[in-house]
Amino acid sequence: MGVAAVLDAVAGFCLLGGALLSLAAGVGLLRFPDLLSRMHAATKPQVLGLLLILTGTAIRIGTVVDITTLVLVGVFQLITAPVAAHMVGRAAYRAGLVRRELLLTDELAAARGREP
Amino acid sequence: MAGTRDRLVAVAALTVVWMLLWGSFSWLTLFGGLLVSVLVLAVFPLPRVTFAGRLRPVGLLRFAVRFVVDLWVASFQLAWTALAGRRAPRSAVLALRLAVRSDLNLTMCAEAVSLVPGSLIVDLDRAAGVLYVHVFDVAGPADVARFRREVRGIERRIIGAVGSDAEIAVVEIAAAQIGDEGGSR
Amino acid sequence: MIVVAVIAAVFLAAAAGMTLVRIVRGPSTLDRIVAMDVLLAITVCAIAAEAAYSRDATGLPILLGLSLLGAVGSVAVARFADPAPRSGPGRPASRKSGTAEGGS
Question: pLDDT value at position B133?
Fold first, then answer.
């Protein structure tokens, strides 16, 4: 009885944490000033938020078949999310959607500037 | 010989995914997985990814623990900035040169760096092994230097987890040469 | 558990709403793509949270598909939004430059 209650509490904590990170991502998406900053906000629900909620789900459901599915969901997400982020970030930089006045230094511009 | 080893690693990885998909660890899923992965690799051959090193459990654990800690810290820092920050946060685009230039190391470092919130791969130079990273919420040169150290630490831990002896030697030499500051070497 | 479920649902719904605002406001295609990605992640979170609340695993295979294919759409669009997909990031330059040379 005690163990079940503790597990439920941990699962609830995980679910709330994931939901809170998603909420913060939504706020960041609205408030941050430029595209690349918003992409940083976007990483949270895609990585830690999702992992927390998947952990909570695994604890609540607790059968081997479903836990392996959840593990795979997490792994696939961790592999594919950076690919998409990199492609979008690269396109954003090359399309000139970076707000230069917010940048402290830009070593990529220096490298590209030297390009013949 | 190296090609055979790479293929074996790929078959093993695909078999693990197959067994996880079925959600049962029995002889049936094991042999079914082996059959399917051999078929898949025969029909859709992968580009050659050389896995030169070997798995080191201690290094892997060290990397995983540190990665999870970084993930938590960075996520909640960023969440705090989003919810309570008042000024428009500054950023920086940094060039980070890796000590080991293999494709696998480049890929894994890029994945690890961009999975942690607050840093994002904008571009990369495969031939020279340089990552161009957009770092969020940078206040000054101190933050820049700290971030360079962090990425070097990530590379060291990745190489320590999956690298070969030669790669570990390269990373250690580079770490000894870098000393305090500057990311160009 | 019902309290947790309600709070999580409110958080996720608010997040999805703000993401929708960003999708509508733009201003660029890439902003919308990033917001779409977040919306997808929130959807995955919501389906998983529902499964956790009801202890019912019916929806989990959907998550596999979403997590595998979610990136494909944004990669495709980013490819089109990139003005010069062929030019390198400065490969010849960084090889010649003195600051970046060395370290093997």
Answer: 86
Q: Are B123 and A93 in contact (CB under 8 A)?
A: yes
| Binary contact (B93, A37; C-beta < 8 A) | no
Looking at residue C102, what is its pLDDT?
36
Work out how many domains chain A is built from and give that number.
1
pLDDT the model gives residue B35: 92
ipTM surpassing 0.90 = no
Do the chains contact at C16 and A57, CB–CB below 8 Å? Answer: no
- Residue A116 pLDDT > 60: no
Q: CB neighbours (10 Å) of residue C104?
A: 10
Q: How many domains does chain B have?
A: 2
Neighbours of chain C (3+ CB pairs under 8 A): A, B
**Domain membership of residue A65 as a residue range:** 2-113
Q: What is the CA radius of gyration of chain C?
A: 20
What is the pLDDT, as a whole number, of residue C10?
Answer: 92
Residues B84 and B141 in one domain: yes
Residue B99 to residue B97: CA distance in whole angstroms:
7
Q: What domains are there in chain C, each with its CATH number? A: 2-82 (1.10.287)
Q: Measured between CA atoms, how close is A47 to chain B, in angstroms? A: 7
Residue B137 lies in a domain: yes
pLDDT at A113: 64
